[in-house]
Design goal:
Length: 108
């Protein structure tokens, strides 16, 4: 990220940092990284889902639902099941993320 700070896809590593923080239970750090990722590329739909999940875990449901709404406005056909199948992460790892996404209001 330091080598190419203006890269249009720099949102991806920032989003992965947020996702990793979520999986590690560091939800505040996940929100910070998620907000940065969305700031870098607000049109990249899944980043909003990766932001919604830690917000939901922190009990910040209005913000989580707002992020979920933004994801659905960018990708009206998004579903948690389709996303889970596409990324292929083991269920024991991804279950917490998908549960948080449900809490944020994303469709099954």
């Amino acid at each position: 990220m330091r080598l190419s700070p203006l890269d249009a896809m720099s949102c991806v590593p920032q989003g992965i940092i947020g996702f990793g923080n979520f999986l590690s239970g560091r939800h505040e750090q996940a929100v910070t990284a998620g907000r940065r990722a969305v700031e870098l590329n607000p049109g990249f739909s899944i980043l909003h889902g990766w932001l919604a999940a830690p917000l939901a875990r922190l009990g910040r449901l209005d913000e989580a639902k707002g992020a979920a709404t933004r994801l659905l406005s960018l990708d009206p056909h998004f579903s948690i099941g389709r996303w889970s199948a596409a990324v292929g992460i083991a269920p024991d790892i991804i279950d917490d993320v998908t549960d948080a996404m449900r809490t944020a209001g994303l469709p099954e």
